[in-house]
Amino acid sequence: MLRAAAREWLADRYPPERVARLADSDAGWDPTSWGELAGLGWLDPELDVLEHAVLAEEAGYALLPGPWLSSVGLALPALGGAPKRPTTLAWADDAASRLRDAATSVACRADDDLDGWRLTGVKRAVPDVAIADEAVVVARTPDRVALFRVDLTANRDAVHPLSTVDTTRRLGELRLDGTPAEPIDAPAAGALTSARRRTSALLACEAVGVTQRALDLAVDYAKTRTQFDRPIRSYQGVSHRLSNVYAALQLARSLAYRAAWCVSADDPAVDEAVASARVAAARAAVGGCEDAIQAMGGIGFTWDHPLHRFYKRAQWIAAFDGAPAAHRAELAEMLFAG
Amino acid sequence: MDFRDTPDEAAFRRDLRTWLGSALPADWAERDPHVGRWDFEFARTWSRRLFDAGYAGLTWPVEYGGRGLPPTYQAIFLEEIAKADAPDHVGVIGLGMAGPTIMAHGTPEQKRDHLRGILSGDTIFCQGFSEPGSGSDLASLRTRAERDGDEFVVTGQKVWSSYAHVADWCILLARSEPGSAKHRGLTYLLLDMHAPGVEVRPLRQITGDPEFNEIFLTDVRVPVSKVVGEVGGGWQVAMTTLLHERGTLGFALTARLEALFRRLLTTATKTGASTDPVVRDRIADLYVDLQALRYTNYRSLATLVKTGVPGPEGSVAKLHWSETNQRLTSLAVELLGPDAPLSGAGAFWGGYWQYQQLRSRGNTIEAGTSEILRNIVAERVLGLARSR
Q1: What is the phi/psi pair of residue A48, to 5°?
Q2: What does the pLDDT average to over B54-58?
Q3: Is B151 a catalytic residue?
Q4: ipTM of the complex
C-alpha cells in the first residue's frame, strides 16, 4: 500500500521530463517538495528503515531529486529521528574518507569558545549540502570525535557546491572556519555506524529501483523498435542481454531487502548483509543501465532520453562510501576471520 | 519478510541436526570431501534411513507416506543435509519429478503403486524425455507409442537419462498420434524398466563417470493404465514435471553450493592464496553470488507459501547457480597452482576440485540450457516475444 501510493505520487509528480528539467536547473530540485513529502508521511517519525527501504526503491525508480535520502539515511541516526528540515551529514575530510573511519580519525577541529562551539576544517563530498538547511558535522574536540549541528541557512558562505555528474544528487564542500555549531549528545561512533548501515541499505534499495526503471525503458523500446523488418525484441542478442539484467536485478533485490531487514532487526549479520547488498546492487544498477543503453542503440546514448540520468545515479550509488571492491575487501576480511 | 525460523521450524532443524549427528559416522565432518558420485547401494541404504526417520517426502501428503509439512521444512532439510555433507536421497528423479507429477495428474492406482516406493528408495525412477534429435526442442521428439488394445507399444531412443541403469520405472514422453506435430499428440507414460525390449547403455561423460545413459526401446509394451493424464495430453503433464524439476532444485543447489564455498575458503587457506588480494576479491564476489542465490530462494519460497505458485524471481535461480558454480570450481582449481592438472590420489583432496570443475560444465546444459532459460525470462517475464 505504501509502495503503491508512493509509486502513484511519483509517477504523477515526477515524470521523466520534469526530473530532467529539475536536474538541469540551478537548484537541482523543487524545494516545495519537502513539504509535500512531509504531507505524504515520508518524514513521519514512526517509519522504520523497512518502510524507508520501500520508499527509497520507488524514489530510485522515479529518480526523485532532493535531500530526502540524505535526511532519513545519513542524518537521522545523529538526530535521533527524522529531521524536520532537509539535513545532511558531513563526515569526509583529509583524515577520513570512509564512514567507518570517521568515528576514530577526523581532521575537522571543534573548539569550545566562551560563546559556544566553533568548527574549523574542510568537509568533502557532502551529499546535498547546497540544498540542505542543516548539516551534522563530524569533528574532533580536544578529547574525542563528536557530532555537531551546523545551521547552513545562517552560514551560506561555508557551502561550496561542486559540479557533479549526477545532477539530481549533487555533492559539495563545507569550508568551516570558526563556524558556530551546536553539539549533539549522541555518541559519534554509534550514530556513524547506524548512518553507514542505514544509508547503504537504502541506497541498495534505491539502486534496485534504478535498475528496474532502466530495464523497463529498454524492454519497452525493444518491443517497438523494428530493424530488418522485425522488432528487435526477437533478436537473442537483445533479449538475452535484458534477461541478464532481470536476473541481476532480482538477485540484487533479494540482498537489498535482506540488508534493510538486518538493519531493522539489528541482526548480527548486518555488516555482511549491507556489504553484500552494496556489491550486488552496484553491479545490477551500473551494469543494468549499461546493458539498457546498449540495447537501445543511439537513442539510449542521447541527452534527451532519460536513461543517462539513471546511469549517473547508479554510478553515484556505486561510488558512495567506498567502491564495490572496498566492500568486497571487507567481506573477505569477515570470511577469512570466521 | 522475516528470515528467521519459527519456533516449530527451529525445533525441526535442531532435531534434524541431532539425528544427522547420530546417523552419520563419527569422523564424517573431519574427512576429506568425497570425490565423484556416491556409490549407489550406499546411497540407497542412506535413503532408507532418511525414510525411516521421517525425512523423505516432508512436503508430500501423509496418505502417500509423507509428512504434509509446508515447503519451508523441505528447505531446512536441504540446508542441513548439505551442511552435514550427507548424501542426497537416491530417488532424486522420483522425489523431484515423477512423484509430484503423479500426485498432480496420476490415477488413484498410480498413486497407490508408485509413491511410497519413491520415498523409501525401493523404487528408482529415471526420466525419458530428451532424445538424440530432441534436446532443447523437446516437443520435436519421435519415440512412438502405438495403441494395441489395452497397451501401448513403445519404440524409440532416449538419452541423458540419469539413474536409468538402476531404475525400475521411467517417466516417458512419447508420440502417440502418428504424424502429429510438436506439442500435440504426445502421451506421458510410466514405463517398466524391467520389461522386455528395454536396453540401457551407459554414457560416459566429461568427468569419466557414466552418470547418464541411453535408453533403447524396442516394442516395449506399456499398459494403458500407466498413462499419466490424458492420452495425447502428455505435454501439459510434462510441463508439471519440468516445473517441479526447476522449482525444487533451488534450495538443494544453493545448499550444496554453500558447502563448496566453505571448501573454497579452506582450499585458499591451505594453498596460501587467502592473502592474495586478487583471490580475496574474487572469493568475496562469489560469496555475494552465493548470498544473492540464497536470499532469492527465500524470497521465492515466501511467494510460494503465500500464493501457491513460484514467483518470477525463481526463474533466475538455476541460471545464476549454474554459472556461479562454474566460476567457483574454476577458481578452486586455479588456486591449486602447478598441481591443477593432477587427478586422482596425487591431487589435492584426491582430485575433488578437478572433478567438480569438469562436472560443473554440465550445469548450464542440463535441466534447461542457459539459453533456453534466458528465452523463458525474456518471453514469459519481460514479454519479449519469441526469439527465432
Answers
A1: -95, 170
A2: 94
A3: no
A4: 0.96
